[in-house]
Amino acid sequence: MYNKILVAVDGSENALRAVKEAVRLAEGNPEAQITLITVVPPVDMFFGYGEIWLTVRQETRQKALEKVMQKATEVLDQAKQAAEMAEGTAGQVETVIQIGDPAQAIVEYASKEGYEVIVMGRRGTGLLQELLLGSVSHKVMQLAPCPVLLVR
């Protein structure tokens, strides 16, 4: 049985299936803790590098960050609702937003916080993720300090 389960979510159907699988893993274990994590890219990434970055006003960067964080919160809220629909998970589901490279942030958080398993969908949302064919999940599998369960 796992006591600390980290679930990577991105708003995709596969991520919601991963949430349901994590709830199943926690079933019957009153000490199980499920943490939903979503990772957003740094706002700097949206504005480019070098001189272009310097010309973008601070308020524009702040608005972009607010929109990205709002979307991340929505993704986590949807995943948390899916987790809490299962009996026995009330009070055991936490949420976390990280900023950075998704795979690296997931692995670092799991390592730092001592998670025993990472559960995630094998592919994410959007055209870019479709082209990359699950590169985030592949990278997490290669770097994770614990077992990784991929759900499809």
SSE topology sketch:
Blueprint: E1 4-8, H1 13-26, E2 33-40, H2 44-47, H3 51-55, H4 58-84, E3 93-99, H5 102-113, E4 117-121, H6 126-132, H7 135-143, E5 148-151
Parallel strand pairs: 1-2, 1-4, 2-3, 4-5
Describe, in plain words, how this protein is organized in 3D:
With 152 residues, the chain is α/β, with parallel strands linked by helices. The protein has 7 helices and 5 strands. The chain has helices at residues 13-26, 44-47, 51-55, 58-84, 102-113, 126-132, 135-143, and strands spanning 4-8, 33-40, 93-99, 117-121, 148-151. The chain has a 5-stranded parallel beta sheet with strand order 3-2-1-4-5, sandwiched between helices. Helix 1 crosses helix 4 and helix 5 runs parallel beside helix 7. The protein is globular and about 50 Å long. The model is unreliable at 126-133 (pLDDT under 50).
Summarize the structure.
This protein has 152 residues and is of the alpha/beta class. The chain has seven helices and five strands. The longest helix is centred in the middle third of the chain and has 27 residues, at 58-84.
First-to-last CA distance: 22 Å
Chain-averaged pLDDT? 84
Helix content: 40-55%
| Unreliable segments of 5+ consecutive residues | 126-133
| Class derived from helix and strand content | alpha/beta
Total helices: the number is 7
